[in-house]
Specification:
105 residues; mainly alpha; flat; transport; transmembrane helix; transmembrane
């Protein structure tokens, strides 16, 4: 169950990271409410996951999911550059996430 909590925590991290763009510096009420809500949910799920998972592994995977998701949605939603070097770096993050999952106890 901890891995499911961690996956969900990572997905909520993607939501709040992208939500930050829509808050316009926390100047827009409803995007701010949604973003802060996603932040709280993400942290609570991470806390539940680290009850049984190693903190280093869980935190690295959580931030990795957030980074990969934010880059992907930045490309799709905001026209961020999708250059080969950026995509290769994202691939390295994914490899790290998979490696940490496979070596976790």
């Amino acid at each position: 169950m901890a891995w499911i909590y961690l996956l969900l925590a990572g997905l909520f991290e993607v939501i709040w990271a992208i939500g930050l763009k829509y808050t316009e510096g926390f100047a827009r009420l409803w995007p701010t409410v949604g973003t802060v809500t996603a932040m709280v949910i993400s942290i609570v799920l991470l806390a539940m996951a680290v009850k049984t998972l190693p903190i280093g592994t869980a935190y690295a995977i959580w931030t990795g999911i957030g980074a990969v998701g934010a880059v992907a949605l930045g490309i799709v939603l905001f026209g961020d550059p999708a250059t080969l070097p950026r995509l290769l770096c994202v691939a390295l993050i994914v490899i790290g996430i998979v490696g940490l999952k496979l070596t976790a106890t």
